[in-house]
């Protein structure tokens, strides 16, 4: 028969053995968070991705009781930031504000990409930004139908601008070109602002721009909006039809933002961050602020966000293939 001391010693050993079988992520989640969290942004400060991240950060802070440091790591079309998070410790302290580029398009565009979709655990899809098909007012077209007819009658004479090769703006143009069998010339720029300037000046004919960049120029009449690429009309441009309404079905394209973590991050931690973001995005004031940016609240939890990313990867892979774009 065991003596009391022997019994205590055996119980301690059994307890230690049991603890050793508990995944480290679960043990870490038990005490999490004990220090500030980092939300990594793949682009420079001031853009929509950065602004949306800074809108949700205070709500996460309030929910978990720790500071959320928003950290910009721009470069390589977002790949620098995405790789950093993909290779970070899965301890619940590092997150990425991923985009359609970092999580969907770039896999088909870059040969030397050093991360993959399986390296991330989706947390929450937050919002999307539709593109808007805009033309210079000097163009003799006032609808998508008229633009298609003009393009087919004048092969090689249309040029479309983009914020850079491989962007959703570029690939939206390629998708339109491929589906409608229009011979158009792509003119890439280093950012939307430069592209829009030349579009207004008439150096290029059209562009599938992110709505927030072109919106002020549409409102002042410097650009003519023909359609938006979202499933529903934009509240900022209620009189502008969707591409489907304009006669081009199944044409949805644009940017989106969502929070992701390194793949092995504890599901409990992911659930807490998701809950904080979902509650924040449900607030009317937050929704109003997002809409004012030209974005659309588009909240999806981990499972739905994961499925959404898979669909986006396949969609843009097909566009890249149809456009004969060679990975660089």
From TrEMBL:
The keyword Signal applies. Keywords: Signal. CDD domains: PBP2_Bug_TTT. SUPFAM superfamilies: Periplasmic binding protein-like II. Residues 1-28 form the signal peptide. InterPro entries: BUG (IPR005064), Bug_dom1 (IPR042100). Belongs to the UPF0065 (bug) family. This is Tricarboxylate transport protein TctC. It comes from Orrella dioscoreae.
